[in-house]
């Protein structure tokens, strides 16, 4: 869907493109990119840039978000109003008269009434204690649901995919660059004549193994980053195009030759580990929650 | 709604079956052949709708007391409603701002890609045809086993995969699917 919109190309100078495309507040990111762009502009005709594809591998949320205290209170308030005003529930359509399910429903319903409106509501008028005990027994025997907090949360196990079930987790790898250990998204180079999304799939497989079910979302890149090139201006510059992917099964097995360590982190945690100019380049591509 | 005016004993023989659609029927006319249908009929079309508060049913007998417990006051109710709408507005603005930032990143990337390489730009903008199969795919499918062929065919290009799980209130009993056999998907 986006591809039709981005087809409207900008033929004017690169700097004008850059300034025109940014509708949000000015931040350090356009300044950094702008500087790199201006330096590269007169040399674009001479040196073909080295293309790389970065992959933003995302583990989507497993559980729904916890409602805030205000949202919970509002939902309870609306439920009370609905309970006061709703049309009569056709209970004899759903529950056979005299069945244990009916007595269990009555017990639960009285409990809900008392909880919604207070003590005088939901008082029972002569119910046999055996039926009640039977109903309570069936309620106890029901299966317990899994807890929303996993032990990986308590132990802060960053390699575990169960951690932070409500949040979006992103994979970053620890790589060696010029003797320093840096944290980055998985990255692969683009061969001559190879399409970018094919290069992304290949790069992900090389760096993280293929023991996982991944899906690259589209043919379009979702963002671009210019790493600060330390070399002289004569060399070709590096450009990294990022692609979004989802992981649905399996685990990451990083290639020892490329990366020493990996972690599944939320957006805030990525900020603490990654270099500052890298962070400024990638932060707008990630989901906040 | 002229049907409701007719009395059941004034109906011709062919229309007797339509007795269910009358709002006012004599209790003796209602047949008890199927008690479930009778229950449904009773709840959908109550016998006398003219003296009840709501057209499709009644309110509970202690509705006034219950409402007094539920709603503190008119002003409180309106304040709560306004607070909720404001909260929803904040969430909406945050969501829209995030999407706008992501879209700007995408647009920037596509602009730079167009300047760098027009062929890659054209290929990136191509619309995915879900039914099309590339030559590489067709070649690879010939040598695959049945389960592998099904795995390739089930992943439709341009659509979200079925394995992308919808978030639930509690996590699944089996946890994260750890077992995944390494499978080389042919490139599109």
From TrEMBL, chain A:
GO terms for molecular function: structural constituent of ribosome. One of its GO terms (cellular component) is mitochondrial large ribosomal subunit. Residues 50-153 form the Large ribosomal subunit protein mL46 N-terminal domain. Keywords: Mitochondrion, Ribonucleoprotein, Ribosomal protein, Transit peptide. The keyword Iron does not apply. CDD domains: NUDIX_MRP_L46 (cd04661). This is Large ribosomal subunit protein mL46. The lineage of its organism: Eukaryota, Fungi, Dikarya, Basidiomycota, Agaricomycotina.
UniProtKB/TrEMBL annotation, chain B:
InterPro entries: Ribosomal_mL40, Ribosomal_mL40_fung. It is found in: Mitochondrion. One of its GO terms (cellular component) is ribosome. Residues 164-188 are annotated as: Disordered. Keywords: Mitochondrion, Ribonucleoprotein, Ribosomal protein, Transit peptide. One of its GO terms (molecular function) is structural constituent of ribosome. One of its GO terms (biological process) is mitochondrial translation. Belongs to the mitochondrion-specific ribosomal protein mL40 family. This is Large ribosomal subunit protein mL40.
